[in-house]
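Cross-check.
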Amino acid sequence: MHIDVLDLLGAAAGGFLGATLGALVAFVFTGFAVLVGVAVLIGGGGTAFLDNVAFGPFFGPHIAFAGGVAALAYAKRRGRIADGRDIVTPLVSLSRPDVLLVGAVFGVLGLLGQKAALEIPGFGDHTDTVALTVVASALVARLVFGRSGIIGPHSEGLTGARRFLPTDKHVWLAYQQQPLMAATLGLFIGGMSAWSSVVLLNAYPDAPGVTYLGFGVSAVSLLFLASGLNVPATHHITLVSGVAAGAFTGQVGGDAVTVLLGALAGLLTALVGEGFSRLWLIRGDTHIDPPASAIWPMTTAVLLVAELL
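Predicted model, tokenized:
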């Protein structure tokens, strides 16, 4: 595994920036960077902007977003902030350099973790190592700074399967948590991402990164969530649907079938994301991201199916 000192410096700065802006706002900038990167690809440029800015030390979710999440967990443990799941608040508002420095440390850990995951034979190139690292970083942050444990206790003392049911207190995004609602979102938002991926891949066959368009739009839309509007979180849906469209293009019956398979992947990813929100987010005292939790196993599943075909 090659470690570039320049990348380490960038990751420290990226994690610091993620804590400064707050994890969610940092991720919105990831979305903007993805859209710029896709535009660069369409314009005939290379992948350097996507690789180094959108998914690298600048705004890579495993660095900036994960750094913001870890800094938030630390701030909660030190009594600097009331809610360890409040990924919206810019942590610079706390006026605590130590909080921001935790973001820098986890930015470096995110870079190293993602590079290490890429080196796993037969696995690193069959999954989304960025999303996997986001989840691993959040788990470490909860174990180090949190008090709830990985799953978390129910406020009413419920146990067994009832422990995982959302309530007014234990909730992620109430307006999309019902299985039918999540499935509907996944089907149609996933279909949109798959359609755009197929159309753009046909137009720009030498630029596979155009499948990130839907993901970029979804990430930018979270700016409105940060502003208080009840928009859905769909970046896990659009990302996996785009991956599915790219993986199945040319392997199945035609473009329409590819879009339908992408939509199905979106539906399943939406349900998996909801499942992870109930597993380790809604009762926890720190943030473990449900979309990232869904992205890496669903990406793995899609790529394995495509390889079997």
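The chain has a mean pLDDT of 97. The two ends are 31 Å apart (CA to CA). Passed to J.P. for a second look.
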